[in-house]
From TrEMBL:
A GO CC annotation given for this chain: ATP-binding cassette (ABC) transporter complex
Keywords linked to the UniProt accession: ATP-binding, Hydrolase, Nucleotide-binding, Transport
Residues of the full protein shown: 42 to 268 of 393
Annotated protein name in UniProt: ABC transporter ATP-binding protein
UniProt keyword Transport present: yes
Gene designation: cysA
Domain of life (superkingdom): Bacteria
Length: 227
């Protein structure tokens, strides 16, 4: 995937008094996984949603692969997002869920089945392709959501607290899996979490957010090295 630049971005929600993003700056290298880490309300989701094009911004510029996408609508940015939970169609099978995004992009049946199965294999669910997602565990559902996101070959993958709704054991297992899958896919990724442990496990670099901007950004070892 391409790199990402968010330059001097301000976001103010209608009627709000504070800036949700306040001179926010972030540069991501192609193929890199950057974690945005911080407590509730610091602007992590807003940064992700602004990058995706789900929020308009009041100042600054956003570039992907060197191309200015500021103001480009969400469906033209070729990004894919995974949310905390409940983002799948429960009455569809895993395969149908993954194929759905390819179908609305106009891909033919044979090709989309092939691509969808490839991604289900990547997340370790090839043998569950025909199962309805409402019958799957939370961890399995998040794997399907990840497969669906990757199936469209997004330029950037956006993960918004993808593990937060899972119980501790599954969370630990799936965070290692997500990192493996991301490395294998080579997709430029932004991962939002409030969990430091999680950040340390998956990140190439961690951006620590506070009050709408990144206070510090570095690789995990540099950031948490003891003096
Ligand atoms: P985080 O993801 O770190 O919890 P958010 O990006 O959700 O933070 O929120 C950043 C700030 O913007 C918070 O003060 C939050 O209350 C505010 N905010 C988020 N979404 C909206 C919205 N739709 N309307 C108004 N304010 C919002
Ligand atoms: P997160 O911390 O994961 O962003 P929140 O609970 O802060 O989740 O927000 C959940 C939803 O509520 C989001 O869609 C967000 O945009 C919206 N929201 C958050 N804060 C506000 C706010 N102050 N006013 C209006 N909507 C808000």
């Amino acid at each position: 995937g391409g790199g990402v630049q968010m330059l001097n971005v301000d976001k103010i929600y209608p009627g709000a008094t504070n800036k949700a993003l306040d001179n926010f700056n972030l540069e991501i290298n192609p193929g890199e996984m950057v974690v945005l880490l911080g407590g509730s309300g610091c602007g992590k989701s807003t940064a992700l949603r602004s990058l995706a094009g789900l929020e308009d911004i009041q100042a600054g510029r956003i570039l992907v692969g060197g191309q200015d996408v500021t103001g480009v609508p969400v469906n033209k940015r070729n990004m894919a997002m995974v949310f905390q939970a409940y983002s799948l169609f429960p009455h569809m099978t895993a395969l149908q869920n993954v194929e759905f995004g390819l179908e609305i992009r106009g891909m033919g049946k044979t090709e989309r089945r092939k691509q969808a199965m490839e991604k289900l294999e990547l997340v370790g669910l090839a043998d569950q392709a025909g199962k309805y997602t409402q019958q799957m565990s939370g961890g399995q559902q998040q794997r399907v959501a990840l497969a669906r996101a990757l199936a469209v070959n997004p330029r950037v993958l956006l993960l918004d607290e993808p593990l937060s709704a899972l119980d501790a054991k599954v969370r630990v297992q799936l965070r290692d899996e997500i990192r493996r899958i991301q490395l294998e896919a080579g997709t430029t990724t932004v991962f939002v979490t409030h969990d430091q442990e999680e950040a340390l496990t998956v990140a190439d670099r961690i951006g620590v957010m506070n009050h709408g901007c990144i206070e510090q950004i570095a690789d995990p070892q540099t950031l948490y090295r003891r003096p």
